């Protein structure tokens, strides 16, 4: 088997594939084919989704996974999958489904069964949970809420620039569903088989200053895996949730790609 030559980047909530713009260029310069698929209905620009968030309110996890699966299965060989935030949880699901040569979850949202809920996460997600009616809406963040949850280590000027360029509302139904999954019988949308020995190697990357998906969540998620396959976790000091846009991201991008290439089946 030859080394993977394609990278699939999976975005999280409150952003679109635009949030990967620097990573796409960076990896393409290294000679890789890079795909950053949008969730179904998110194929338009940030500005259009902010003007009409209907596609956001209507999207579901199964629809997202089905779409990403179709993108990956259309490739001639298994790619490296790198996901951020909710995209990290989706990366775990895709790997569990037998897709990908290796996976990286950056500041990942938890998969089903991870019950750690730090106070900073509660504060970060409060805009969604403060009103039960938000379960049926697309819920945006104010600039102050964005800065706390995503860019707490950034300057105010940089944080505002990224907010204006990247921010969109998130699907309240999925955010609520992620919490309720641990209290409902049966497997929910973010379930994975933590004992799957056939899953591709997986690296968790955690930013020490992440408020919305703090290190405790990454550590708990990684410890849930009991399979006889590679599962590792690394922490980067001083990094916030929007790690892919923080100064020094190039070093992390190169490291996680090198890790994935090293651990992908030869």
From TrEMBL:
> Could you cite one Gene Ontology molecular function of this protein?
hydrolase activity
Q: Which SUPFAM superfamilies match?
A: alpha/beta-Hydrolases
- Ranges for the AB hydrolase-1 domain? 7-254
Keyword line: Hydrolase
rRNA-binding among the record's keywords? no
- Origin: domain of life: Bacteria
Q: Which InterPro entries match?
A: AB_hydrolase_1, AB_hydrolase_fold, Carboxylesterase_BioH
- The molecule here is called Alpha-beta hydrolase superfamily lysophospholipase
């Amino acid at each position: 088997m030859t080394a993977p030559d394609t990278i699939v980047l999976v975005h999280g909530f409150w952003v679109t594939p635009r949030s990967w713009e620097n990573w796409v260029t960076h990896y393409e310069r290294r000679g890789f084919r890079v795909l950053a698929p949008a969730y179904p209905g998110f194929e338009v620009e940030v500005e259009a989704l902010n003007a009409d968030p209907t596609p956001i309110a209507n999207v579901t996890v199964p629809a997202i996974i089905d779409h990403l699966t179709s993108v990956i299965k259309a490739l001639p060989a298994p790619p490296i999958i790198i996901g951020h935030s909710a995209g990290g949880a989706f990366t775990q699901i895709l790997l569990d489904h037998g897709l990908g040569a290796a996976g990286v979850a950056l500041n990942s949202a938890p998969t089903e069964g991870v019950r750690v809920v730090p106070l900073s996460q509660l504060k970060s997600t409060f805009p969604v949970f403060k009103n039960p009616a938000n379960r049926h809406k697309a819920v945006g963040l104010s600039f102050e809420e964005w800065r706390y949850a995503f860019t707490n280590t950034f300057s105010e000027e940089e944080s505002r620039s990224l907010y204006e360029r990247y921010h969109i509302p998130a699907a309240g139904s999925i955010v609520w569903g992620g919490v309720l999954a641990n209290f409902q019988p049966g497997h929910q949308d973010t379930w994975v088989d933590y004992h799957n020995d056939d899953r591709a190697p997986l690296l968790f990357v955690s930013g020490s200053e992440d408020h919305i998906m703090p290190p405790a969540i990454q550590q708990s998620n990684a410890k849930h895996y009991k399979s006889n396959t590679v599962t590792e976790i690394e922490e980067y000091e001083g990094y916030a949730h929007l790690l892919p846009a923080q100064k020094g991201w190039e070093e992390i991008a190169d490291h996680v790609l090198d890790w994935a290439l090293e651990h992908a089946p030869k």
